[in-house]
């Protein structure tokens, strides 16, 4: 709420206040959709069904458009003539994001159903998940989005680790490792000047400048904008400033910073970046608490939180897109830790071991309602 409120306030000092206000209300509509989904009596099942049906529609549709309607699902680079695939999205990067979130969801859904794999219904769902994972991987392969590929691997590793026996016994092993890895990255990158992103790019056979992204970042940081307040919500890439950038940067007709943190800084300054950081830290603490209570969505949300940071290093991950909205869905819907009454039930009625086993099979909305 604080971030959205400051974003609305920033409309005042935007060069294009009307456009900024329209964009704010547009994004507010996306957040309202999240609230509608969460207003269901069983929000966990509602979000799970929402994501599943979304991917059931977009993944096969993307394949159909690419294979049989190339005038819609395919384009060619005007300079190199290389084919670029977009499917049912607006571009190859958006197709990569769709595949990233879809692959992560179906992998998580398969892992969470693994203990029931001998049941007929669970087995059918898992086979369907495998089929969609295969389709997703094919789309991700042709999308040529290395950022999404790397993030998918990282996200799947986080989910697998979260469901391992060692982490289930001691969740702090995983919840402490991720912040330590991020701090290590910052120390190496900021303190020692080691360009880890360039090293990763070289490992996957890419340009160490991240396709001129480092040049874009340097040029944008050299531009004069308000350090504290930025240029206003979604206002940096507008009007004379955008035309001046296109004419003087020599980096093509781009309209984003290709870095989520830099994008927020340009639009909302240090204040907006600080509010975003506060939200990410608060949400991580909440996710860690939910992971300790074996929440169904805990591992998926933790993976989304992790890859959101990775993805935002080279793309504008905090814009109101599929990854950001899916993360918000998971972060908000994760139910609370079983409270006092649930613990009383745990210890008295069934015994320590038996009650824990029973409560692990009860829908978490039920245990949350015991408050």
From TrEMBL:
<feature type="transmembrane region" description="Helical">
    <location>
        <begin position="124"/>
        <end position="141"/>
    </location>
</feature>
<keyword id="KW-0436">Ligase</keyword>
<dbReference type="Pfam" id="PF04932">
    <property type="entry name" value="Wzy_C"/>
</dbReference>
<protein>
    <submittedName>
        <fullName>O-antigen ligase family protein</fullName>
    </submittedName>
</protein>
<dbReference type="InterPro" id="IPR007016">
    <property type="entry name" value="O-antigen_ligase-rel_domated"/>
</dbReference>
<dbReference type="InterPro" id="IPR051533">
    <property type="entry name" value="WaaL-like"/>
</dbReference>
<dbReference type="GO" id="GO:0016874">
    <property type="term" value="F:ligase activity"/>
</dbReference>
<feature type="transmembrane region" description="Helical">
    <location>
        <begin position="318"/>
        <end position="336"/>
    </location>
</feature>
<feature type="transmembrane region" description="Helical">
    <location>
        <begin position="264"/>
        <end position="282"/>
    </location>
</feature>
<feature type="transmembrane region" description="Helical">
    <location>
        <begin position="94"/>
        <end position="112"/>
    </location>
</feature>
<keyword id="KW-0472">Membrane</keyword>
<feature type="transmembrane region" description="Helical">
    <location>
        <begin position="294"/>
        <end position="312"/>
    </location>
</feature>
<dbReference type="GO" id="GO:0016020">
    <property type="term" value="C:membrane"/>
</dbReference>
<feature type="transmembrane region" description="Helical">
    <location>
        <begin position="51"/>
        <end position="69"/>
    </location>
</feature>
<keyword id="KW-0812">Transmembrane</keyword>
<feature type="domain" description="O-antigen ligase-related">
    <location>
        <begin position="132"/>
        <end position="276"/>
    </location>
</feature>
<keyword id="KW-1133">Transmembrane helix</keyword>
<feature type="transmembrane region" description="Helical">
    <location>
        <begin position="176"/>
        <end position="201"/>
    </location>
</feature>
């Amino acid at each position: 709420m604080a971030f959205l409120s400051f974003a609305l306030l920033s409309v005042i000092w935007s060069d294009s206040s009307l456009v900024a206000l329209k964009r704010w209300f547009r994004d507010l509509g996306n957040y309202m959709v999240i609230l509608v989904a969460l207003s269901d009596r069983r929000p966990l099942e509602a979000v799970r069904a929402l994501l599943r049906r979304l991917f059931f529609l977009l993944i096969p549709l993307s394949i159909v458009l690419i294979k049989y309607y190339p005038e819609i699902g395919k384009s060619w680079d005007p300079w190199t003539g290389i084919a670029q695939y977009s499917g049912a999205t607006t571009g190859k990067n958006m197709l990569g994001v769709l595949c990233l979130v879809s692959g992560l969801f179906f992998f998580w859904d398969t892992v969470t159903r693994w203990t029931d794999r001998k049941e007929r219904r669970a087995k059918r769902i898992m086979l369907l998940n495998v089929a969609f994972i295969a389709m997703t991987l094919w789309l991700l392969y042709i999308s040529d989005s290395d950022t999404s590929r790397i993030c998918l691997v990282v996200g799947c590793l986080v989910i697998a680790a979260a469901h391992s026996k060692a982490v289930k016994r001691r969740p702090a092993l995983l919840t402490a490792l991720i912040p330590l890895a991020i701090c290590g990255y910052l120390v190496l990158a900021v303190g020692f000047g080691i360009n880890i992103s360039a090293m990763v790019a070289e490992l996957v056979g890419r340009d160490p400048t991240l396709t001129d992204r480092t040049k874009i970042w340097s040029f944008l940081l050299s531009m004069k904008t308000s350090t504290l307040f930025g240029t206003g919500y979604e206002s940096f890439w507008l009007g004379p400033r955008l035309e001046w950038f296109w004419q003087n940067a020599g980096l093509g007709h781009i309209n984003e910073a290709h870095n989520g943190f830099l994008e927020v800084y340009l639009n909302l300054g240090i204040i907006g970046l600080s509010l975003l950081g506060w939200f990410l830290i608060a949400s991580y603490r909440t996710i860690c608490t939910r992971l300790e209570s074996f929440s169904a969505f805990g591992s998926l949300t933790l993976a989304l939180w992790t890859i959101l940071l990775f993805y935002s290093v080279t793309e504008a991950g905090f814009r109101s897109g599929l990854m950001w909205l899916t993360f918000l869905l998971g972060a908000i819907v994760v139910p609370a830790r079983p409270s006092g009454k649930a613990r009383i039930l745990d210890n008295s009625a069934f015994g320590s071991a038996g009650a824990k086993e029973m409560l692990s099979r009860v829908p978490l909305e039920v245990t949350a309602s015991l408050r």
